[in-house]
Design a protein that fits this description.
This protein has 383 residues and is α/β, with parallel strands linked by helices. The chain has 2 domains: 211 residues, P-loop containing nucleotide triphosphate hydrolases (Rossmann fold), CATH 3.40.50; 123 residues, Zinc Finger, Delta Prime, domain 3, CATH 1.20.272. It is 52% helix and 9% strand. The chain has 16 helices and 7 strands. It has a 5-stranded parallel sheet with strand order 4-5-6-1-7, sandwiched between helices. Strands 2-3 form a two-stranded antiparallel ribbon. The longest helix is centred in the C-terminal third of the chain and has 23 residues. The protein is elongated and about 75 Å long.
Length: 383
């Protein structure tokens, strides 16, 4: 990875490089902005440059050499000067009294954690996801302090990156605050968050804040084409739906964007038949339940909602050029022509309600059956 591999954020990267060249690196930073815009990627690259043995300086830019032992370790996120903190599940079956926090976890949990770190090393836009992990606990901050003290006086800068800092418990936040107040010149602490407003005001006042704006459509579109073998039109649709987040774009790609989207569209077209639709409809629902996990189904519904929104916009203006699902333009126009009085607002409301039910772990098959039958009833009031 290099500065160039970080999508967009030109000014943010330049500010950090200027600080390194002028030896004005702050002891603590807050990188804030929406998810998937490059906060973690930038934090990792900053840590790598600060510890590079042979940094490359060219005018007002400074980059890691990517060849020294330090750089290679940072690329694997295995450097001893790098401390990654993120939400972890409750430890089980390990040594509950161990000073080393990771030793408190079972072998299975440790493997899951290591796999997530490996995925982040391969792709700094990866969203770390662990079962039942919803908070950063005070014991993690205590363990961090212990590790930092053990490496006191070691060459290079120790860099702490706290992912989704808003997930720290109040106890963890207060414990971290004491570390921020100590201001050790050999330690750089970087907090990343998409919810700056929930952090303690005392933490905010002790960090240098850098805002990461949403990525542009073109930045996401070009990176998709660069990294994936994918049809141009599909890349355009995903870039639009990503809403400024490259992580969201990756989720659409990884979850089989086109297939799940078209499956929901096909179910919708099936239930709009006047008769003899039930058997085919139920078979298609069963197929989705068997082949897709909950996350894919949620993405599918969001994509289907975007399809309906395109239809709604075409119903208002047949010449509308801002259609997201442009590959479906003929199908969309046909639907709008055949169902001129369709109540789109009611349909949007029913989809939103279904998404809420999924979050509450209601049976997904029942949710989908009821949703699409209710979308049919918008047309056929008594059937």
């Amino acid at each position: 990875m290099s500065w160039d591999s970080i999508i967009g954020q030109v000014n943010q990267k330049q500010v950090l490089q200027n600080s390194i060249i002028k030896n004005r690196i702050h002891n603590s930073y807050l990188f804030y902005g929406n998810e998937g815009v490059g906060k973690v990627a930038t934090a990792i690259e900053l840590a790598k440059v600060l510890n590079c043995l042979n940094p490359v300086i060219n005018g007002n830019s400074i980059s890691a050499c990517d060849n020294c032992q330090s750089c290679k370790q940072f690329q694997m996120l295995s450097h001893s000067n790098l401390h990654l903190i993120f939400s972890l599940p409750t430890p089980k079956n390990g040594d509950s009294k161990a000073d080393d926090y990771i030793s408190r976890f079972s072998d299975e949990q440790v493997i899951d954690i290591q796999n997530q770190i490996q995925l982040l090393a391969e792709n700094p836009y990866h969203r770390i996801q662990l079962p039942s992990a919803n908070s950063i606990k005070i014991d993690q901050i205590r363990d961090l302090k212990r590790k930092i003290s053990l490496r006191s006086g070691v060459a290079g800068k120790q860099v702490v990156i706290i992912l989704n800092a808003e997930e720290m418990t109040p106890e963890a936040s207060n414990s971290l605050l004491k570390t921020l107040e100590e201001s050790d010149p050999n330690i750089v602490i970087i907090l990343t968050t998409s919810r700056k407003e929930v952090l303690l005001s005392t933490i905010l006042s002790r960090t240098q804040q850098i805002y990461f704006q949403p990525l542009t459509y073109r930045e996401i579109y070009q990176r998709i084409l660069q990294n994936f073998t994918i049809e141009d039109n599909t890349a355009r649709i995903i870039a639009t739906l990503a809403n400024g987040s490259y992580s969201t774009a990756l989720q659409y790609i990884e979850n089989g964007f086109t297939d799940i989207r078209l499956e929901f569209v096909e179910i919708f077209r099936t239930i709009l038949k006047k008769r003899n639709y039930r058997i085919d409809f139920l078979k298609k629902i069963e197929k989705i339940i068997k082949e897709a996990d909950q996350k894919s189904i949620v993405n599918g519904l969001l994509l289907f909602q975007s399809w309906l929104r395109d239809a709604f916009n075409l119903s208002l203006n047949p010449n509308n050029q801002k259609i997201i699902n442009s590959d479906q333009i003929d199908v969309l126009k046909s639907f709008v022509h055949n169902f001129k009085d369709y109540d789109f607002l009611k349909a949007f409301s029913k989809i939103e309600y279904s998404l809420i039910l999924i979050k509450k772990n209601v049976n997904i098959q029942i949710i989908l059956v009821n949703l699409f039958l209710s979308l049919r009833q918008i047309v056929y009031k008594n059937n």
